[in-house]
Amino acid sequence: MLKRLLLYVWVITIPLFFALNAWQSARYYQLSEDVRRLEKVQQDQLEQNKRLIAGIAVLSSTERISKIARDELQLQKKNPSEIMQIHIGKRTNQDG
Q: For 69, which of 4, 62, 63, 75 could close a Cys bridge (C-beta 3.0–4.6 Å)?
């Protein structure tokens, strides 16, 4: 009786292992596809970041800013003798 029960369990277990193996294979394939897709998205975002950083470098160059200030805003550099600096110090309590 015990041998027969073990045989039934064995007969049922083998197809379950095959089904589990097939499920794991399908799951592995799906996860691999997700990883590939996410790696491509990451690579695209890295390339976009590089382009944006290059754009920032071009837009923030001192030559470009000086040209805009001079040509479009009609700003001029002042001589150091024309600049007045005002320093405001801390007030001290002199109440004694």
A: 75
| CA dist., res. 33 & res. 30, Å (int) | 5
Break the chain into its structural domains and give their ranges: 2-72
CA 20 and chain centroid, separation: 37
Report yes or no: 76 and 70 within 8 Å, Cβ to Cβ: yes
3-class secondary structure, 79: coil
At 44 the pLDDT is 97
- Whole-Å CA distances, 52 to 9, 10, 34, 49, 60: 63, 62, 27, 5, 12
Q: Is 75 within 8 Å of 69 (Cβ atoms)?
A: yes
Please report, to the nearest 10 degrees, the dihedral formed by the alpha carbons of residues 36, 42, 43, 47 taken in order. 160
Centroid of chain to Cα 90: 44
